Structures are given as structure tokens and as C-alpha cells.
């Protein structure tokens, strides 16, 4: 966030400098409101650009094996244009290269769900997906029984067309034992 602030202020200063240079080239004195208005417009333009492109720029830094399964678009009163063009505020992703399957329960997949949100650090949550039951449970603090199942799962049902369910269960990754 600090980088965005510094860059937006720098963009405003550069735009004001170009406006000043343009007036100077034609040997005219700019009206007192022009340079601050140009700087403000440049800051606003960069902020809008950064807000609308952060998800794409973040996705491009991820390994090629990572699959984005959901993008959450929002509109906000502070950005009235977002009612016409909603912006991505957060997204979730999985990495099929890290999927693990239990040979005793081949339809269950242990994976990390990566959560990305604007102005927040990214984090991951270990999850267990039951592909035949269309449900998942977090296993971050779970105790596992000897058969490899969680002791007290908090199952969350998923719709059969859920993109996360499709991405995890459609994986053809070879089974790995956790």
C-alpha cells in the first residue's frame, strides 16, 4: 500500500511537471489551479488503474500450475464507476501440483486454498475436499485419525457446479499420501 501511495504521488508530480513544461514551452504562466488539478487527475487515474489491474498483475506472478478458481468483484460508493465496471477485490486459487490423495480414500483430496485480497497479505488454508460428497472442510488445526481422516470435520457443502470443486476434483494428479 505504501508503494501505491508513493507511485501515485510520483505520477501526480510528473504529470504536473509535464503540464508546467508545456506552459513554459509556450512562454505562458499557468493559472494557479491547473497544476494541482493535473496532479490530482494523474493521482486519481493511477489509483483507478492500480485498483483495476492488481488481480491480473498478481495472477501473472503465480506459478503456471496455479489455477484461479474464483474472482470476487465489488462495487463501492467510494468508486462510483465501479457500479458500471466492478473491480476484482479478491480471488482464490489452488495449485494442483500440491494436491495429495489418500490411497484409502481416493475421492478425498488434501490441498491448499490460496486467498488473495487487495491491500492484504496473501495466505493459504489447508483444506480437505470430498469429491463424491461435494463438500470440503478446513484441516488447519485438525487432528487426524489413524485411517487418515480428520477427527471432527466441519464440512461445508458445495454446489455440484462450484468452480473450486471442479478444479480440485478434476485433477489428474497422481495420488500422494499425506
Explain what this protein looks like in three dimensions:
This protein has 178 residues and is α+β, with helices and mostly antiparallel strands. It folds into two domains: 61 residues, no CATH class; 115 residues, Lipocalin (Beta Barrel), CATH 2.40.128. 33% of the residues lie in helices and 26% in strands. The chain contains three helices and seven strands. Strands 1, 2, 3, 4, 5, 6 and 7 form a seven-stranded antiparallel sheet that branches. A hairpin with a 5-residue loop joins strand 4 and strand 5. Helix 1 crosses helix 2. It is elongated. The two termini are 37 Å apart. The mean pLDDT is 89.
For the structure shown, list the relevant keywords:
178 residues, alpha+beta, Lipocalin, 2 domains, 7-stranded antiparallel β-sheet, 3 helices, elongated
Summarize the helices and strands and which ones pair or pack.
Layout: H1 2-25, H2 34-60, E1 67-74, E2 87-94, E3 100-102, E4 105-117, E5 123-130, E6 135-138, E7 156-157, H3 163-169
Antiparallel strand pairs: 1-2, 2-4, 3-4, 4-5, 5-6, 6-7
Amino acid at each position: 500500500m505504501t508503494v501505491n501511495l508513493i507511485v501515485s504521488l510520483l505520477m501526480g508530480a510528473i504529470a504536473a511537471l509535464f503540464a508546467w513544461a508545456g506552459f513554459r514551452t509556450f512562454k505562458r504562466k499557468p493559472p494557479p489551479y491547473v497544476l494541482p488539478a493535473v496532479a490530482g487527475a494523474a493521482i486519481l487515474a493511477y489509483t483507478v488503474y492500480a485498483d483495476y489491474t492488481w488481480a491480473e498483475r498478481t495472477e501473472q506472478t503465480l506459478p503456471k500450475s496455479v489455477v484461479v478458481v474464483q474472482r470476487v468483484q465489488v462495487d463501492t460508493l467510494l468508486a462510483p464507476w465501479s457500479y458500471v465496471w466492478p473491480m476484482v477485490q479478491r480471488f482464490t486459487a489452488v495449485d494442483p501440483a500440491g494436491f495429495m490423495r489418500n490411497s484409502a480414500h481416493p475421492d478425498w483430496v488434501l490441498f491448499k486454498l490460496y486467498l488473495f485480497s487487495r491491500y492484504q497479505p496473501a495466505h493459504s488454508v489447508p483444506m480437505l475436499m470430498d469429491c463424491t460428497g461435494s463438500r470440503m472442510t478446513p484441516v488447519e488445526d485438525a487432528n487426524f485419525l489413524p485411517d487418515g481422516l480428520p477427527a471432527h470435520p466441519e464440512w461445508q457443502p458445495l454446489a455440484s457446479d462450484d468452480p473450486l470443486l471442479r478444479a480440485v476434483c478434476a485433477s489428474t494428479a497422481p495420488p500422494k499420501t499425506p
